[in-house]
TrEMBL record, chain A:
The keyword Oxidoreductase applies. Residues 20-140 form the Aldehyde oxidase/xanthine dehydrogenase a/b hammerhead domain. SMART domains: Ald_Xan_dh_C (SM01008). This is Xanthine dehydrogenase family protein molybdopterin-binding subunit. Gene3D superfamilies: Aldehyde oxidase/xanthine dehydrogenase, a/b hammerhead, Aldehyde oxidase/xanthine dehydrogenase, molybdopterin binding domain. Keywords: Molybdenum, Oxidoreductase. One of its GO terms (molecular function) is iron ion binding. The keyword Oxidoreductase applies. InterPro entries: Ald_Oxase/Xan_DH_a/b, Ald_Oxase/Xan_DH_a/b_sf, Ald_Oxase/xanthine_DH-like, AldOxase/xan_DH_MoCoBD1, AldOxase/xan_DH_MoCoBD2, AldOxase/xan_DH_Mopterin-bd_sf. Transmembrane segments: none annotated. Coiled coil: none annotated. It comes from Oricola cellulosilytica.
From TrEMBL, chain B:
Residues 1-170 form the FAD-binding PCMH-type domain. GO terms for molecular function: FAD binding; oxidoreductase activity. Signal peptide: none annotated. It holds the Pfam family FAD_binding_5. It comes from the Bacteria. This is Xanthine dehydrogenase family protein subunit M. It comes from Oricola cellulosilytica. InterPro entries: CO_DH_flav_C (IPR005107), CO_DH_flav_C_dom_sf (IPR036683), Diverse_Substr_Oxidored (IPR051312), FAD-bd_PCMH (IPR016166), FAD-bd_PCMH-like_sf (IPR036318), FAD-bd_PCMH_sub1 (IPR016167), FAD-bd_PCMH_sub2 (IPR016169), Mopterin_DH_FAD-bd (IPR002346). Keywords: FAD, Flavoprotein, Oxidoreductase.
Length: 780, 265
């Protein structure tokens, strides 16, 4: 691997600028003449707009302009769309309501944008925003996903009767029903997956700059996928044609999914820049982030799992209501369907599965993919049910899982996915050993002596990553392909730029992608620069989400590197008068295998560009591009074990130990991978214990600041025990599965299983706050 | 935040004078409550008069068991004073558990009690210690000072200059923090000198900080956690919000009181 190649714990190249505060984020961008924007937002969760009077605001000091939805519509700016078509069970297409970038006739959640105010300073814009008079006729509100389907619930979008977006199914319903009917034991549960606010450290921002002389737009924005932003803004929102629109996502401070989507603000800033003739910058404050970033999860599910007399699962039936909020965000329809129900087989042999998902509108912030996206919801349903079934059946949760594990690969599940490889038992064993599972009863007894209730819980997860084979997702309704692109540019001195269509917003691509190149060519990672996040620099690419940058993004780099190597070898063979088949690239040298005839990598590069002596007919230069379209999803899997102590007097839960045993396939940089697991597990523990999103009956978000919304802090977390059991992914060249989401997917059920084990009451919802646990202890 | 002006006062008199000439002025100390409120545009003073640099309002002086803490003393200073910890460990430990390090290094005892947040920690200590609140106009007994949620006996322009109390023989503070804000969901300060026991509760009461008199009399004759068994605060007088029901808070009050007694020893 070399000291900087694949598998090396190289310190992150990007850390210096981030740790010293020298990152360059959208907020740091300055364009001459730039003005500041503030959005006027709806204070009501549901209301008709009777009129908007901007005259007082326009007259305020420093104000350049105040623009509202009618003007935006007059200029032909389109509505926001969901880019994944889902059909209901009856074959009808999903009922997508209109989402105007600036609401015109109706607002549907607190925070809905109504107008934009542009002024010299942000304070002036804010002052003027308060002076915009919007006359509302307040309508009844519904925020709960089950209530919104009931008769008489307020109608949110005219074209989604009863607030139902789709009623979708996957698997065989009849076969599943009959398997359950014949089961020796059926475990039934009702499971809530709590709504989460993503809380990226950097709030969303946009700077729109229209250059009238060039008739060209530039948009700096906090995006995980700038090319997708450009595509959508030009193809659907009619902001500008692609060749006249440059989207730059500079340093981006975390996304977790919430920065995949194209939001109203970047569209409006671009349009407003043309309208007013000044560059327009908007930066969300934390309250806006809470109110308007796409939230995550928010499912209510009924599940039935049937077992035969030998404790083998015979059938699984799941009925889920997914709350998509007030509007359908860009990939919102895919998250509770193809990213959720296709994982319902988990790590287990389940012959019959049926999943039904009803997606609904409510008067809440839009909901879309958030770290894990659908897979945490699936894992939570399955792993809470498995643990509960084990308790009901009176056998060890570990042994019930072991008895049902898939052991032969490839494995076709009843819900589309085809697992290429895995060794689930290896992770189960590793986790149990690391946690000293067998020693638990003694620890429980010891804790009891101190007045504490100790519990242990497990979760075996699988996820589908490496998103995604374009043809497959196309057949399932995706509006885009999910390949990735790369270009490897070798400079005349042998240094390299890699242009990647994936985007780094915390993942460490500048390091890991360079490690790949270093591994192949034997040159230092310092000689390799990774270029991303700018549509003018980088060829079309699909961005970063779904743990895809390694499995898909790096595979594209491998393909481009293959081409570069081939050409380099041809040049070297020509110069060294050797057979091309005998040329190898090692330690920065291009040499004839088994001889001391060699050229430095830089010499080959220089020759490619001087072109004084190239093989006949060869073009000068050394630069190759590639597109990689994955053949399958990848399937990271693992086993997590959580051990807790509950203080029965207060209900406070302390996590005593947390073990993560993961199979991510091959690993490029173990340090970065461990960091991804730590962060993911912290988020999962946050969901399980602390993070509750609460809307009141009027649709006001009560948890709109850190005084009320509790993010996990270091003191809430134990030191994690992390290990890896590796089976190589069989479908991509590096054998990588991906690691970005696992921690958030696998951990919540392990935590809740541990608490419910401790307190002897299975009736507990997330977040398991001290109050809820205390009440559950007393009800046990 | 709306536009405002800032004045750094060098003396109590200067601060009071500045306040007299400002139209809608406000004193600012650590700014940990006031500045976030202004940022959310819920307060819009046209002048901020900073008390934090007034020499007379800073520092801790201890004379035997008599303690005086200047109003502009930060929570971090109270938490890290070894002399204070020696005579009155309960208050030093209380200060060390307020918010986070940032808040502790900026926020002041005067600002905390002037604000009288129903979930703030210091008001419980002041009540249980029978402290005197010194202002530029008078001295107010803690029992008369706290007048319900965010309400105090202070007049508009009155400045708290210091608090003083006689350290009890034993004292301790036990707090169950709200995991998000770190303010108290229930915090109980217990102080004992001879048979005189005071139990003050913050974070839980509907009207802010209060003394749990039933517990005080039970503890007067038997200063042990077990003395509280069978007692309960009135659930009807407890706060109920998204973080904790009245029932839960009532439970926490009792548990925290028992823990404080155990710690006071
Ligand atoms: C994240 C966070 C967590 C917190 N956690 C806790 C906690 O766990 N426990 C807790 O008790 N508190 C907590 N606080 C509040 C903190 O202790 C504040 O310091 C305190 O409430 C106010 O003190 P200050 O010096 O910052 O006052 P400021 O914010 O400057 O002022 C508050 C009010 O008091 C007035 N005032 C200030 N000084 C005087 C004076 N000397 N005389 C008269 N009036 C005065 C001001 O005019 C203003 O109205 C927290 C605050 C934050 C931001």
């Amino acid at each position: 691997m070399g000291i900087e190649g694949i598998g090396a714990r190289v310190a992150r190249k990007e850390d210096k600028r981030f740790i010293t505060g020298k990152g360059r984020f959208t907020e740091d961008m300055v364009v001459p003449g730039m003005k500041q924007a503030v959005f006027v937002r709806s204070p009501h969760a549901h209301a008709n707009i009777k009129g908007i009077d901007v005259s007082a605001a326009k007259a305020m000091p420093g104000v350049i302009d105040v623009l509202a939805g009618d003007e935006l519509a007059e200029d032909g700016i389109g509505s926001l769309i969901c880019g994944w078509m889902i059909h209901s069970r009856d074959g009808s297409p999903m009922n997508m309501g209109e989402w105007r970038p600036l609401a015109q006739s109706k607002v549907r959640y607190v925070g809905d944008a109504v107008a934009i105010v542009i002024a010299d300073t942000r304070a002036q814009a804010r002052d003027a925003a308060e002076a915009v008079e919007v006359e509302y006729k307040v309508l009844p509100v519904v925020t709960d996903p089950a209530e919104t389907l009931q008769d008489g619930a307020p109608q949110i979008h005219d074209n989604a009767p009863g607030n139902l977006i789709f009623n979708w199914g996957i698997g065989e319903e009849e076969a599943t029903d009959s398997a359950l009917a014949g089961a020796a034991h059926v475990t039934e549960m009702e499971i809530v997956n709590n709504r989460l606010v993503p809380n990226a450290m950097e709030p969303r921002a946009a700077l729109g700059h229209y250059d009238a002389a060039e008739d060209h737009y530039t948009c700096w924005t906090t995006s995980q996928n700038p090319h997708v932003a450009r595509l959508v803004m030009s193809a659907f929102y009619n902001v500008a044609p692609e060749n006249k629109l440059r989207v730059i996502a500079p340093d981006v401070g975390g996304g977790f999914g919430s920065k995949i989507y194209i939001y109203p603000e970047e569209i409006v800033c671009l349009w407003a820049s043309k309208k007013t003739g000044v560059p327009v910058k908007w930066v969300a404050d934390r309250t806006e982030a809470f109110l308007t970033d796409a939230h995550g999860r928010d499912h209510v599910t009924k599940v039935k799992m049937g077992f035969d007399a030998d404790n083998r699962i015979v059938g699984l039936k799941v009925d889920t209501i997914a709350n998509l909020g007030a509007y359908m965000s860009l990939f919102s329809s895919a998250t509770p369907t193809y990213l959720y129900a296709t994982l319902l087989s988990g790590q287990y042999n389940i012959p019959n599965i049926y999943g039904n998902v009803r997606a609904v509108y409510t008067n809440t912030a839009p909901v879309d993919a958030y770290r894990g996206a659908g897979r945490p919801e699936a894992t939570y349903v399955l792993e809470r049910t498995m643990e509960t079934a084990a308790r009901e059946l009176g056998i060890s949760p570990a042994e019930l899982r072991r008895a049902n594990l898939i052991r032969e690969f490839p494995h076709q599940t009843p819900v589309i996915m085809n697992y290429d490889t895995g060794d689930f038992e290896a992770s189960l064993n590793a986790a149990m050993k690391a946690a000293d599972y067998d020693g638990f009863p003694a620890r429980k007894a010891e804790a009891e002596g101190r007045g504490k209730k100790r519990g242990i819980g497990m979760s075996c997860y699988i996820e589908a990553c490496g998103i995604a084979p374009s043809q497959a997702v196309g057949s399932l309704g995706a509006g885009v392909g999910l390949w990735e692109s790369a270009e490897v540019r070798v400079n005349a001195v042998g240094t390299i730029e890699v242009l990647t269509g994936s985007h780094s917003h915390g993942q460490g691509h500048e390091t890991t992608f360079a490690q790949l190149v270093s591994d192949r060519l034997g040159i230092p990672i310092d000689n390799v620069s990774i270029v991303h996040g700018d549509t003018d620099k980088v060829q079309m690419g699909m961005g970063t989400y779904g743990s895809r940058s390694g499995a898909v993004g790096m595979s594209a780099i491998v393909k481009a590197l293959d081409k570069v190597e081939k050409k380099a070898k041809m040049i070297a063979a020509h110069l060294l008068e050797a057979d091309e088949a005998d040329i190898v690239i090692e330690n920065g040298q291009v040499k004839v295998a088994g001889t001391d005839k060699a050229l430095g990598w830089h010499e080959v590069a220089l020759n490619a560009y001087t072109a004084h002596n190239l093989p006949g007919g060869m073009e000068p230069g050394l630069k190759e591009g590639a597109f990689y379209d994955p053949a399958n999803f990848t399937f990271p899997a693992g086993c997590y074990i959580c051990e807790v102590e509950v203080d029965p007097q207060t209900g406070k839960t302390e996590i005593i130990q947390f073990v993560a045993a993961d199979d991510f396939g091959n690993i490029i940089n173990p340090m970065i991978v461990e960091g991804q697991v730590h962060g993911g597990v912290a988020q999962g523990i946050g969901q399980a214990l602390l993070e509750g999103t609460v809307y009141d009956e009027g649709g006001q978000l009560l948890t709109a600041s850190y005084m009320d919304y509790c993010m996990p802090r270091a003191g809430d977390l134990p030191s994690f025990q992390v290990s890896h059991q590796t089976t190589e992914c069989t479908t991509n060249p590096l054998g990588i599965k991906g690691c970005g989401e696992a921690g958030a997917i696998g951990s919540p059920p392990a935590v809740i299983n541990a608490i419910t084990d401790a307190i002897g009451n299975n009736n507990l919802t997330m977040p398991a706050t001290s109050q809820k646990v205390w009440a559950a202890v007393n009800a046990a | 935040m709306y536009e405002t002006s800032y004045h750094r006062a060098e003396s109590v008199e200067e601060a009071a004078k500045k306040m007299g000439t400002a139209e809608g002025g406000k004193y600012v100390a650590g700014g940990q409550t006031l500045i976030p409120t202004m940022k959310q545009r819920l307060a819009s003073p046209d002048a901020l008069i900073d008390l934090r640099h007034i020499p007379d309002m800073k520092g801790i002086s201890i004379n035997g068991k008599d303690v005086r803490i200047g109003a502009a003393t930060t929570h971090a200073e109270v938490a890290s004073s070894a002399d204070l910890d020696a005579v009155c460990p309960g208050i030093a430990s209380l200060a060390g558990h307020i918010g986070d390090p940032h808040v502790r290094h900026m926020g002041t005892i005067g600002g905390s009690i002037a604000n009288n947040d129903p979930a703030a920690d210091y008001p419980a200590a002041m009540l249980a210690l029978g402290a005197a609140i010194h202002t530029n106009k008078r001295e107010i007994a803690a029992g008369d000072f706290f007048a319900g949620m965010f309400e105090t006996a202070l007049e508009e322009d009155e400045i708290i200059t210091a608090v003083s109390f006689t350290a009890p023989e034993k004292c301790a503070y036990s707090k169950f923090p709200n995991p998000a804000s770190r303010y108290a969901m229930a915090g109980v300060f217990v102080a004992r000198t001879g048979d005189d026991v005071r139990v003050a509760v913050t974070g839980a009461g509907m009207d802010g900080v209060f003394r749990w008199e039933e517990a005080e009399s039970a503890l007067g004759s038997n200063f042990a956690a077990s003395a509280l068994e069978g007692l309960a605060v009135n659930e009807g007088e407890m706060l109920s919000d998204i973080h904790g029901s009245a029932e839960y808070r009532a439970n926490l009050v009792k548990v925290m009181a028992m823990r404080a007694i155990a710690e006071a020893g």
